[in-house]
Amino acid sequence: MSLSTAPRTDATAPAAFADRHIGIGASDRARMLEVVGYDSVEHLVETAVPASIHVRPRATSDLPPAATEAEALAELRELASANRSARPMIGLGYYDTFTPSVIQRNVLENPSWYTAYTPYQPEISQGRLEALINFQTMVTDLTGLATANASMLDESTAVVEGMLVARRASRAKTDVFLVDADALPQTKALLVHRAAAVGIRIVETTFEGEVPECFGAFVQYPGATGRVWDFSDVATAVHAHGGLVVAAADLLALTLLRSPGALGADVAVGTTQRFGVPLGFGGPHAGYMAVRGGLERQLPGRLVGVSVDAVGNPAYRLSLQTREQHIRREKATSNICTAQVLLAVMAAMYAVYHGPDGLRAIATRVARTADALASALVAYDLHLAADAFFDTVRVRVPGRAQDVVDRARERGYQLLWVDDATVGVSVDETTTDADVAAIVASFGLPAAELPEGEALRAVPERLHREDAYLTHPVFHAHRSETAMMRYLKLLADRDYALDRGMIPLGSCTMKLNAATEMAAVSWPEFSRVHPFAPEADVHGYLAMIEQLERWLAEVTGYDAVSLQPNAGSQGELAGLLAIRGYHRANGDTERTVCLIPSSAHGTNAASAILAGMRVVVVACDEAGNVDLDDLRAKIAQHADALAALMITYPSTHGVYEHDVLEITQAVHDAGGQVYVDGANLNALLGFARFGDLGGDVSHLNLHKTFAIPHGGGGPGVGPVAAKAHLAPYLPSHPFSQRADHAGGVFDGGPVSAAPHGSAGILPISWAYVRMMGAEGLRQATAAAVLSANYIAARLRAHYPVLYAGEGGLVAHECILDLRPLKEQTGITVDDVAKRLIDYGFHAPTMSFPVAGTLMVEPTESEDLAELDRFVDAMIAIKNEALAVAAGEWPADDNPLVNAPHTAETAVANDWTHPYSRETAVYPQRSLVRGKYWPPVRRIDQAYGDRNLVCSCPPPEAFA
Hints:
Aspartate Aminotransferase, domain 1
């Protein structure tokens, strides 16, 4: 392959997409190469990447030539048209919904929301954090519990996390976890798969009779059959055993039904999908988790809380951050290190827009519609599985179930075939009287006037909700579209996202999320498709998924790919569970040791623990590489028990390890499997492949290398790719449209609620690969490596670059060591990060993988002007720190320790600082016309943990 940068000769041809995606032009590239000291990008990258792993030429390729943007959209239209338009009434946790246009346009389709990063720099994330605290308040109010986190990946994985919370918090001395027989089938399958790896015994029960000893119990409310039931007696019995109760509850139903907390649940979980979030063939959707008082520190994932800034103003931030799983490593209790922020924002704003009265009205209409359908069916002597229901009815039609489902499908409706005698029908806010009439006809009943429905007709009065919810003013103040639009704009303006400037986060790859890639996500042919729709109705989706899987397999050197994992952490877990399944199938049940370098991502260790493995840490040498002597010693020590090695390539330290083939061979020789973490594929794509490094399995971060936006901390997609011998153990699913889809025989189990995970955003990565082509992907890698080395070269004289490989080169990111600066000046990495805000930047990754450092990854999307702006800012900050050391400014009162500076600070009457207002807020003249103003001063992190408040503060707090 060539990395030619010659201009296009056909002046009438549209610009290649790669030229739009990659920010560096030919003239800028030449200037950057001069600084780095190489004559070509090809020479640079091929020097950095070890020659022993360079990709071998292939005669044929599954990757088609790069398409133009128009061609890619046309192909996506063709795929979309192959999905049969139908009204989904399958239910099982997934419902059609109306996304208010003001939310679709101003959140889902707005780069100010979808290109933001996780709010680790809370001073410039206040809008997103407020939206998330709205989400948490919505969940706690509806569930009747004390504290909710900032979203989970989906309902079924949230149930698993609830089970793990119960195990940690329970006083019971048993490994038994009771599971409701009326739970969603995909959740039951996921529980069985996940519990087996960590030694939990699942016992399915109808909860009739005496409740056996257990550390916890899971109940579905309402049940999969639609049944609404009072589980308070079950909760009392479980609590008597010292166990905890986990309830999966439908939030829309909870606007009418008594809350789980009121019935004795300790943990409530579920999905917020039906709060305005499109079906998307299964995701992405925001799951939720809420806990009773006393369990706050057991919560997995992220928790937004209220603290104060440097002048005492209330401010939002992530609370209890030492719980973050990548920090706790092998002591982690969950491997979740992300959330579903973009979707949580949508769900929260749905509640803000409709308010409690609007939500209750929607739920009442749904319940009445379901009752009207049930009454019509019962009038013709058909029997229901449950008389008390909210939105779902199961109908007994002995021997006729398939006929009813087929009749409905002919009319354009998808119903649930339960068994040969039972059909399930679920209604939602989009269901009309005409829809109900069509369903009644599908049962072979004559047309008749529909009876008047009554909400919760057979539900006992004691289960009707009487307490108030969503009482905070935010859920009452934005009823008009004008008010809602302005509220969303206000919050967006308080944030820093990729639409403002570079987010140079190492290990995170904040690249361009092109508008053409995003376009198809909102198309109804993709967005309004149920994940359990019959195969005949989703040919377009399946074709797109299979194409993307083939492309990902080719570029990584693997044989099979599963797109089911809906986060990188879930992809890691899926890969390790595949290794576990492989060893067990071979009778090697004693192989449970997972070797992990000390430099690895913290989720690696957490995932290994959740896969039932024992973590053994391998040391790294001074250059940041795996210590080969220590590796060999650990392999010898654990030879008979060795299950796997997890290694990140390029390393977490940002260098290409030249001994990688020797490392992987040593593990294979001992009978272990090699897991190559795909977090840094952005530095390898097109030049080397994980499968050629000796990798047996990898997860890939589509939200990094393949352009799915981070969404403020989610969504993500973390597919798992494997060699043929591990393919049979990739994720399976009870509702998968094609049993052999992932190349396996389903010896594994699911890792996500939906068969294809967050399928609704897969058109983004499909479009990215389709428009880049093999050559474009290779050019993107080269540009990313060039940009990182350019920054390292320009800043090396000011900040030591901590690790480097061949010829002093880094990979796609570099680590700037700020510890000498602190020793010389007293200025900390925090001070530099917050001062960067005044210069108009999001800070790089702080103190990972080494404390006191900044890890910088510019990505291929940034142009030279933005790279230079960042470098100039870092040099200027260094000079400011030296001025502090020279005594020009006091150590406790200077632009760095006081950063960031707000507009309120700049216009204050009592300016007493020894530096000027202009120095504070306009440290570079270029900022005058394009200044980003942080809404708060530096936030007091400790105060927020000492005074834990995780729901909307009263309005007077901001007076």
